[in-house]
Design goal:
single chain; 586 residues; Rossmann fold; 3 domains; six-stranded mixed beta sheet; 14 strands; binds guanosine-5'-triphosphate; binds magnesium ion
Length: 586
């Protein structure tokens, strides 16, 4: 139909897209809910049929790569919801107090993801105009600076203001309509042509995702049914025993919020810097929730503050019944995140995954889609994570659902199932263990108590340190060549006599210890080289080295060692550098 006008509304999350859509079409808005998928709306303006597609918004400062695959797919799909394609895109942006480069990039990135060609058909719609104060729209664009101007220029300087609260007489809606008509006329009525192949591929992808999501949901259901059966056949479970839950996750994943939701407490949005144990009663059961400081989402484990790593280990003592790994649903999850999570979980040992469940937060972003759809669409990394957790996951809505305890009840139910599953795996281990030779016992006891390991490490470190000191003391003018001390007798980590409350993975630890000891070896060898240098220098000035000189050299080496021994950083060359400056000073 020639007269039909097709529009797609795009923009940041909470920028006012749905408000604009309803006001423009003069349709009453029933709910303030966030938009999670494309919504096709129809109306009539001046006898002209309007088809308008409302879309979910991106986070204003998120780059495209940080948006979920679901969101990106909806953006592309928006152009196909109003075939044969929209006449105009309305880029809805609230009048921001500080429109930064980041905001500009986010808008550009998401718009261009739809197509490089969107700009010729885009009009910016500024909302929430109360922030303008005394300024006009033009003044605002002028004053806001180059970041915003770059964007308005991309849109051929087409922009209008539309505040749904202030537009009492409908003049702003009229002006928007006029601008749209003008643009359509300039484009000779041409509508946007989406890449047909891309849309086709997307459709196939969505179908596949839906199928896989349904299969996963079914798989989970079957497993849960089996566990329920086992429960019925087994003796009555001790449902009343206290439950110890640890929350882990990257920054701003919602751990504190989840802790409060579980225990029904008040929310504190203070940054968690130490692990915080909060006790409460949930459905008559004593529940302790341990909140932990966050690791990074993008930065590797090595860049965590030391306290993060130590606090997470502290949270594991006593051994928790369940670990909830929090993953927000409003952001991407790629291989990079998987790697970081693996790094952070590694110190907790292989078996930690038996007790871990993914707790998805920001569940409101799912809309009507099942969580399995998000898991499958987000890609392999998230699928692998979920599977590492034995296909166990749960979704928490948000604060708006605080009063609804069903999400917590369901979580506790799933935790109980996980404990049951863990017990089954343990008994399988035991069963298999009986048939193995005793030397193979080692592989089954891969877990070590942090405290025991720490003690062992420090003792071993001190022991080799003392050996080193002795060696330096007994060094004489005789040429002494040492090829370096290797860890001939590795630490006995077989676990004999070590508490079975285990939570450090032996193999990972062995690697780390080896590296530590390699380092000590390198440092010691540098010290020996230094000592030899001193002795050689003495030999050059006197035919027979003076006892006194040797003692002084030893004292110097010792002093240097005391100062530097506990340094965690630096390379062997930095020690050599240090030696040089010490020598220069002398
Ligand atoms: N004062 C004022 N408030 C607005 C305006 N537009 C939107 N709001 C408010 O901003 C909030 C978000 O508006 P929505 O229209 O739901 O925003 P949206 O862009 O559709 O949000 P998502 O669907 O979550 O991406 C709501 O509380 C609105 O009432 C406006 O022009 N003026
Ligand atoms: Mg909306």
């Amino acid at each position: 139909m020639a007269d039909e006008l097709r529009l797609v509304l795009l923009g940041g999350h909470q920028s006012g897209k749905s408000n604009v859509a309803h006001s423009f079409l003069n349709v009453k808005r029933e709910s303030d809910q966030i938009t999670t998928e494309c919504v096709k709306m129809e109306g009539d303006i001046n006898g002209r049929k309007i088809i308008l597609v409302d879309t979910p918004g991106w986070w204003k400062c998120y780059q495209l790569c940080d948006s979920t695959e679901c969101l990106k797919a909806e953006l592309v799909r928006s152009t196909s919801v109003c075939p044969p394609g929209p006449h105009a895109f309305l880029l809805v942006m609230e009048v921001d107090l500080d429109f930064s480069e980041k905001h500009g990039k986010a808008a550009e990135g998401h718009m261009q993801f739809i197509s490089e060609d969107v700009w010729d058909q885009t009009i910016i719609v500024f909302t929430k105009l109360q922030h303008l104060g005394d300024r006009t729209m033009e003044q605002y664009v002028e004053i806001e600076g180059e970041n915003l101007q770059k964007l308005t220029q991309k849109c051929g300087n087409r922009y209008v203001g539309f505040d749904t609260d202030l537009d009492r007489d409908g003049s702003q809606a009229k002006e928007l309509f006029r601008q749209i008509e003008k643009l359509v006329a300039e484009n000779n009525g041409r509508s946007f042509k989406a890449d047909a192949k891309r849309l086709n591929d997307l459709e196939t992808k969505i179908k596949n995702v839906e199928e896989r999501a349904a299969a996963r949901a079914q798989q989970v259901l079957e497993k849960r049914r089996k566990l329920e059966e086992i429960k019925r056949n087994a003796e009555a479970e001790h449902d009343g025993s206290p439950l110890n839950i640890v929350l882990l996750g990257w920054v701003l994943s919602g751990k504190t919020l989840a802790c409060n939701l579980i225990l029904g407490d008040d929310v504190s949005f203070d940054k968690t810097v130490k692990c915080v144990r909060t006790r409460g009663e949930v459905n008559g059961r004593n529940v302790t929730v341990v909140d932990t400081p966050s690791f990074w989402k993008f930065l590797p484990y090595q860049l965590n503050a030391d306290s993060v790593n130590t606090e997470i280990l502290k949270a594991m003592d006593p051994c928790p019944d369940a670990i909830l790994l929090l993953i927000p649903l409003d952001t991407s999850f790629s291989e990079e995140q998987m790697e970081i999570i693996l790094e952070n979980m590694r110190p907790l040992g292989e078996k930690v995954w038996r007790q871990t469940m993914v707790l998805f937060t920001c569940g409101g972003k799912l809309g009507n889609k099942p969580i399995e759809y998000h898991i499958e669409s987000e890609g392999d990394a998230l699928v692998r994570l979920v599977e590492m957790c034995g296909n166990r996951y749960h979704v928490f809505e948000s604060m708006s659902m605080r009063e609804d305890r069903t999400q917590v009840d369901q979580l506790l139910e799933k935790i109980k199932e996980m404990i049951r599953e863990g017990a089954l795996l343990e008994s399988n281990d035991e069963h298999q263990g009986k048939n193995k030779k005793s030397q193979e016992r080692e592989t089954l006891s891969e877990w070590l108590r942090v405290e025991d390991v720490k003690k062992l490490l420090n003792e071993e470190w001190e022991r080799s340190n003392a050996m080193m000191k002795d060696m330096l003391k007994t060094m004489s003018t005789q040429k002494f060549v040492r090829t370096g001390k290797s860890l001939d007798e590795p630490l006995d980590l077989r676990g004999e006599g070590i508490n079975t409350e285990l939570f450090i993975n032996k193999h990972q630890l062995k690697d780390a210890i080896e590296r530590e000891w390699n380092r000590q070896e390198a440092v010691d060898s540098a010290r020996i080289q230094y000592k030899l240098k001193c002795l050689n220098a003495n030999a050059e000035t006197s035919s027979c080295a003076d006892e006194e000189d040797i003692k002084m050299s030893c004292a110097k080496v010792n002093e240097w060692h005391q100062k530097n021994h506990f340094s965690d950083y630096g390379s062997v060359s930095s020690y050599e550098e240090h030696d040089k400056t010490e020598q220069d000073r002398d």
